[in-house]
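Recall from the previous lesson that a structure prediction takes nothing but the amino acid sequence as input. Here we apply that procedure to Response regulator transcription factor from Pseudonocardia zijingensis. The sequence below is the only information supplied.
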Amino acid sequence: MTDAITVMVVDDHPIWREGVARDLTERGLDVVATAPDAAAAVRIARAVRPRVVLMDLNLGETSGVQAIEGILEALPDTRILVLSASGEHTDVLEAVKAGAVGYLVKSASAEELLAAVQRTADGVPVFTPGLAGLVLGEYRRLAGTDRSGPPVPALTDRETDVLRLVAKGLTARQIGERLGVSHRTVETHVQSTLRKLQLHNRVQLARYAIEQGIVDE
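The prediction returns the following tokens.
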């Protein structure tokens, strides 16, 4: 349920910040805090421990990327969704590399933002149309330049199928419907894959799948 999702809104413009917080609250989310800059965002996040942080990148004299890194260092299970006026490729890639789950531009509607926060809370990557392909291409480029490292753990065919669909952003129920199994079986495969790969959540699984070229076009 959406009322279980705690959110912190970080933006240096007070009218926009409070407006977004109000919109999310009216739609059933629990906005537990707001912050105007990177230092405040990290400090307040540590205190309130939100499930999702809605983060602008341009925070006056401070950087949203710094805030993302600081929050995730203290709270690795918190999920960051960037909401920025910028759709520049460098901004998107820097945010994702810092640990953001997704990236929306501020032209998104209130309904799109609500859905994005809900999906982010579930660990599903969310991007404004056109930006997902950019991120996928960058991860594939990086994966192609570095083939060193430990051997890839062996996954079963079904674990690989589930991993591929996780990386595409499908929920456990959607994956179960696609593969003809229950969502509990899907979750079992997800947990098994996490253990084998020594990863912690679905976001890391999605990145792994992209880096290894497991995701279909």
